[in-house]
Amino acid sequence: EAGVAQSPRYKIIEKRQSVAFWCNPISGHATLYWYQQILGQGPKLLIQFQNNGVVDDSQLPKDRFSAERLKGVDSTLKIQPAKLEDSAVYLCASSLDHWEGRYGYTFGSGTRLTVV
Amino acid sequence: EDQVTQSPEALRLQEGESSSLNCSYTVSGLRGLFWYRQDPGKGPEFLFTLYSAGEEKEKERLKATLTKKESFLHITAPKPEDSATYLCAVQANFGNEKLTFGTGTRLTIIP
Predict the structure, then answer these.
(1) Which of B45, B97, B103 shows the shortest C-beta gap to A42?
(2) pLDDT tens, A60-69?
(3) How many CA atoms lie within 13 A of A66 on its CB side?
């Protein structure tokens, strides 16, 4: 089966600019996650969708970050305006449902964002 | 709040030299403990899920074990291709069942 697709792979922007990331999960996976991974740290959950509804966005900086999952499939994550501390890898993951543990979550390769 | 602490931060081993990575956790009711492997420039790749104390899982040169407070990833006779960052994560029984990750152990196997 095809994996989780993410684009772009790399992005360099200046602070205060805006940027958007795209994710296409594995077909049929109801749950989609966006994680932020700062260099040298483990991934941190930003937002979790179940179909097209938000389950958890408690760690999403809502003054600058937004995310949507239209029709319960693709998702976009946007940052506006970007700050230097937003430099990180943004990982998208999906699973059949939020209880799925036997096979773990499947992660995409991520988008590496550099804010200068 | 769920917490995961991994040690050591980095580990260098000679090829064939066995060792263990540690993952200590606190969680309000453990649903599952996950081990992932992450290669540079890639997303984490699922290895194991452990559900209860005493459980063990094996895959090639890797064996994961679980107690009520920690998990170990044992690496037996490692090869250079085992070099990667190994991430541990916990999923709680309550709330939204999100994964909370540790900071990882960066493993380097020297030929």
Answers:
(1) B103
(2) 999 999 999 9
(3) 7
